[in-house]
Amino acid sequence: MEQFLKRQLPIGVAFVVGLVLWAVYYIPSGLAQNVQQAFTAWAIILSGAALILGILSAIHHHWSKVSQQKAGYGYSLVTLFFFGFVLLSGWFSNEHFNWPLWASIVFFAIGAIMAFIFLLRRIGGAGRAMTGNGIAAALFLALGLVGIFGIVPLQATLFTGLTIKEGSIFDWVFQNMFVPLDATMFSLLAFYIASAAFRAFRARSFEATALLIAGCIVMIGRVPLGEQLAVTISGQTISFASVAGWILNNPNAAAQRGILLGVLLSMVAISLRIIFGIERTYMGGAD
Length: 287
Prior knowledge:
mainly alpha, single chain, extended
């Protein structure tokens, strides 16, 4: 029975779902629409479950680093703290029941209980083995205090309420903390791209030389100065911008379509492997 639940049942479900989603393109439109709506609803449910699983996995990963005091565990501690902070700031609150206040009180109570147990164990001689629990107690106490004396008063004075609506503290955290950090992380990609381009553009072969020349033309043709640079040959004006546009619309587009076609064929192949039970990595195995 255990073997059936772990291997045969998931393969059977993947086989049936794959065949159904393939067959909806060959059945009457009304029935196909109903089937697609049903599977879309299940996809939303599974996405929510996967999100919860991912959150719990991330919490477990960071907490393991903190409890074992691995290298860089301070970053994990900051991550866990702000996870709780954003959770409190985004918790729905109304005039009848202040959820963030009571959640903060629960955090503080848990931290106080864990701190009390930690002190008892230290007095009893458990020593350093309880360091992880001491950090957990401090984390819960800090979250509780921040929620009670920080988030809840801000809700009543500076912001319109602890909801995810515009003007709330959650919206402020998103706009003034998450968005700048997100932009900073993406801006770092420019340096990685420049580093990769420097390595790829070294004229060591014909292909690398062609890539270097084409890249330089496109970069020059995409800046305002490059748009003004042009030469006239036999009465026809040729600019860097026009040459860059030709490179992007012809050889570049052809290469992109070839890559996309290869990706689509790979998707078909991996879908068939999953449907017929050849590919089983989605079950957590190595084969």
